[in-house]
Specification:
This protein is of the alpha/beta class. The protein is built from ten helices and twelve strands. The strands form two sheets. Strands 4-1-2-3-5-6-7 form a seven-stranded mixed beta sheet. A five-stranded mixed beta sheet has the order 8-9-10-11-12, sandwiched between helices. Helix 5 links the parallel strand 5 and strand 6. The structure holds zinc ion. Zinc ion binds next to loops.
Length: 287
């Protein structure tokens, strides 16, 4: 099994969105904040798995540069988001450059349906798309559009398989959803950033990878359990970060959020989120 990370352009958001202040209304806080983040990478992942090609999130589309692609009347797109994506940075062309055909993808796993995770859907008309039932229900139609999901831009054929968590605990998570028959790729519930947000856990023979989506924008924010500024329910978001942190303490894990500058290095160098504790030295020869 091989995991590739693909950067599909960059995004800037407001500082108060990256790390929330837990007071006031999230959208109002974002619109009023004058401080932008630096341009952050938008990552998606491709997994070469014996059961087929798997894509985790689809990144963003270059169409965001088209006037009117996002609704002008929506304050978030107008005042809270900037994105830069070149056509050749989309996930489809980048996969082809790697010798992988997007049409061969078996599963597209969506952590959530924000634009910078679902913007590249058009490249995967042949795949089965998996998204949590609660996320899809919240994001679809005109209500979804009002809530900040560009549901009007989803391909017409987009008809995802809606998944419900199964009562099968995985470490600190009380439920999960197995994707592969081998049981080495599964979803775990990480609500907070969005109502139906999921993360993907990939287990290889000697390492565990946690593809976090936007469960936290960076590893540091996960380790300090600081929630973001778009979570509608702070208690839920905090519980998710506690569970992710507990997972990383219990299992040597490489933690890979979608907008963390260090994600590619961490993947390449198999850098653990929580360092393994060194075994206590045993005195040899002592009497
Ligand atoms: Zn998001």
């Amino acid at each position: 099994m091989r995991i590739h990370v693909i950067q599909t352009g960059t995004v800037a958001i407001k500082q108060v969105q990256r790390q929330g202040r837990e007071a006031g209304h999230p959208l109002l806080n974002i619109v009023l904040d004058k401080n932008w983040t630096e341009p952050l990478p938008i990552f998606a992942f491709v997994i070469e798995h014996p059961e087929g090609l798997i894509v985790v999130d689809t990144g963003e589309t270059a169409r965001v540069a088209e006037p009117g692609y996002f609704p002008r009347w929506h304050p978030y797109y107008r005042y809270g988001l900037e994105e830069w994506v070149q056509p050749e940075e989309e996930i489809g062309p980048q996969m082809r450059a790697m010798g992988l055909d997007p049409k061969d993808v078996r599963w597209v796993l969506l952590t959530h349906l924000h634009t910078d995770h679902a913007g590249g859907l058009a490249h995967f008309s042949k795949a089965e798309h998996l998204v949590s039932r609660s996320e899809y229900t919240y994001a679809k139609g005109t209500r979804g559009l009002l809530r900040g999901y560009p549901s009007n831009r989803w391909p017409r054929w987009f008809n995802p398989t809606l998944i419900d968590m199964q009562p099968e605990p995985v470490s600190s998570f009380p439920a999960s959803y197995q994707v592969t028959r081998a049981g080495d790729v599964c979803f775990v519930p990480t609500p907070g950033h969005t109502v139906g947000h999921l993360s993907v856990v990939v287990t290889t023979s000697d390492m565990t990878y946690f593809l976090a989506g936007d469960a936290s924008y960076t590893q540091a924010l996960m380790l300090s359990e600081k929630i973001d500024g778009v979570s509608l329910n702070p208690a839920t978001a905090r519980q998710t970060l506690e569970r992710v942190h507990a997972f990383c303490r219990a299992t040597p894990t490489v933690y890979l959020p979608s907008h963390d500058l260090d994600t590619p290095d961490r993947l390449a160098n198999r850098q653990l989120a929580v360092a393994r504790s060194t075994p206590t030295a045993v005195m040899v020869g002592a009497v």
